[in-house]
Specification:
mainly alpha
């Protein structure tokens, strides 16, 4: 019998050839190549840092500045999320995460004694037995 670690490595290699993974990597590369999007993400992080800096001043914080940061953040966030590359990235990430949840649920089911040839998780991330559940999601 092959070592479980070697089989896991083979599963990892197969995962990297799967359409959800390939789509995710392509979406990530498209985001990285989108200079305007990268600039927007950097600007968003600067707004977040400015807000945190002001909030850390506690009683001396300027509520007007914090509200202005919130408005700027929300507007820029909406613009970023409207970007076609970012929309594809989020869709691809969601698809990949669903596959990873299914793999995890499947392996957890097998670790509980489910028949590997017949077991099918009821939903991604759920083994269908809530006794040891950490919550769906």
């Amino acid at each position: 019998m092959q070592d479980i670690r070697q089989l896991t490595r083979e599963l990892g290699a197969a995962l990297q050839l799967s359409p959800p993974y390939v789509r995710f990597v392509a979406a990530q590369e498209a985001n990285d190549a989108d200079e305007a999007l990268c600039e927007q993400l950097q600007a968003l992080e600067l707004i977040r840092m400015q807000y945190r800096h002001e909030a850390a001043r506690k009683d001396d914080a300027d509520p007007g500045l914090m509200e202005d940061c919130n408005r700027q953040f929300d507007a820029l966030y909406d613009e970023i999320m409207g970007n076609e590359h970012m929309r594809e990235y989020h869709a691809a990430a969601e698809t990949l995460n669903e596959l990873l949840k299914w793999i995890t649920a499947y392996l957890e089911g097998c670790a509980r004694g489910e028949d590997p040839a017949a077991f099918e998780p009821e939903q991604a991330g759920c083994g269908g037995k809530c006794g040891g559940c950490a919550g769906c999601g």
